[in-house]
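Researcher: We're teaching a course module on how sequence relates to structure. For the next exercise, students receive a sequence and then see the predicted structure as C-alpha cells, so they can try to spot secondary structure elements on their own. Here is the exercise chain.
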Amino acid sequence: MVYNCLMDIRIKRAYDKPGKDDGYRVLVDRLWPRGIKKESLGIDEWSKDVAPSTELRKWFNHEADKFKEFSSRYYAELRASDVPHKLLQNAGQHKTLTLVCAAKDPVVNHAAVLQKYLEELAKE
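Model: And here is the predicted structure for the students to work with:
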C-alpha cells in the first residue's frame, strides 16, 4: 500500500490547544481525556482501536522502566491490526498527521511508539 511518504507525524497533548498546522488530528487514546469537551479537542477522528489494549495499558501503567517491553508488546498489537493502515489512509493527502493523546510524559507513552510505527509503515 502506498501512503503519503512526505507526511509529518506529530504528537500533541489533548490539553494543548489545536494549531492551524496540525493537519489531520486523531485522538489515539482508548479513553476520552478527562475534562475535555469534544468541540475544544478539534479532532478529525477518534481511533480507539489503535491504542494499546486495555490489558497492556494497565500492565504498563506509564512506568518508565517497563517502556522497552511495553513498546515491543504494543508493536506486536499494531502489526496484528489493520487499524494503523486505515489511520494512514484516513489522513489521506494531509501533509501532517497529529496524534493526540492525554499522556503527561512526552517520550514514555504509547503515542511515541505509534508515531514510530506509522512512520515505518508509511515508508513501506
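Model: If you want an answer key for the exercise: Strands lie at 8-13, 24-27, 45-46, 96-101. Residues 8-123 form one domain.
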